[in-house]
Task: structure prediction
Amino acid sequence: MDCRSRLRSRSAVTLPTGRNEAAAAAAQATSAAQAVTIESFLAELAAFQTAASESLGGVSDGSGLEQARIEFLGARSGRLKAIQKLLSGLASADRPAGGRHFNEAKGAVTALFAALQDKLAVVGAGSAAVADAIDVTLPGELVRLGHVHPITQTIRRVQEIMARLGFESVDGPEVEDQWHNFEALAIPAEHPARDPLDNFYLAVARGTDPLLLRSQTSTVQIRVMENRRPPLRIVSLGRVYRPDTADATHYPMFHQVEGLLIEPGTTMAHLKSVLRQLASSFLGGDVHVRFRPSFFPFTEPSVEFDMEWGGRWIEMGGAGMVDPAVLAAVGYDPDEVSGFAFGLGVERIAARRYGVADIRDFYRNDVRFLRQF
Ligand code: PHE
Result:
């Protein structure tokens, strides 16, 4: 036994001298970094006490008191906690005195807190009784008023502008038959636009033809012409449905503006000037409109039209002179009457006007977004 313990103590002594020296230097370095004199420690305590009592002087309610408690006596990062950590930096001879002063200061400040807490409790009990009474001099609570959705605002604005150009606003059904959505518009049965993958056909049929959610507002052109004689100037704004995947510029439901004018002597020049007036009034300033040749089964010639906005040409919709086949389908004499029609997306012009990058925002029903318009 004896022998072994001696062996152990000998081996401790015979550590390589290099390591011993390094350990000693490291120990010195740490204690130098933490060294605290008793004078500076007492000064810290005194400053702490002064700050605490000054701060409590300004406290008038429970939450203020709690804030001050956290700042000064908080167990994790309170100021007293920081001073406590300095204790270990005192020379060992100074530590007992330091500890005693620390405890005194802690006791004194804790007592100040307790006294103020009692005082606030008494005042609080008094004011609770007052709070129960109704103060008739306070202003009433404001009822927050809603407002019109930006898409509806856009629809109304377009209706207003078109009304000034003499176009009457009309409505049509969203559930349509194939005659109004396709056939009367010269879209025959084999046309790809009738593909079930591109339409919302319903499980309900009229005769043998299933009904569908209308895929365009051009249906309204037919409905109006079937029931009225020329001259005609109508505009129809409403929902249309297509099974598109929703992204920043597509949504399975959206809104279209449909315009139709049937008057003797109508030309593409009239069409262009109406579109230009609409664009300029809606977007503000003199907005240029450009035609690009295109194809629609129900117009001839057909164009797509762009508007110049912010130095760029933006695709807005389709238009053209009403095809004689369509006029014949509704019982008009194509040799006597002619006219133009156009269709454009409401979301598109609303997004342009309001600077909205993603049309899905219009339908999310997030009041934070909607409140901006
Ligand atoms: N209905 C067409 C569409 O939805 C647009 C259009 C309307 C084109 C009127 C010509 C005339 O794409």
Remarks:
- The first strand starts at residue 168 and ends at 169.
- The CA atoms of residues 221 and 272 lie 19 Å apart.
- Confidence is low (pLDDT under 50) at residues 1-20.
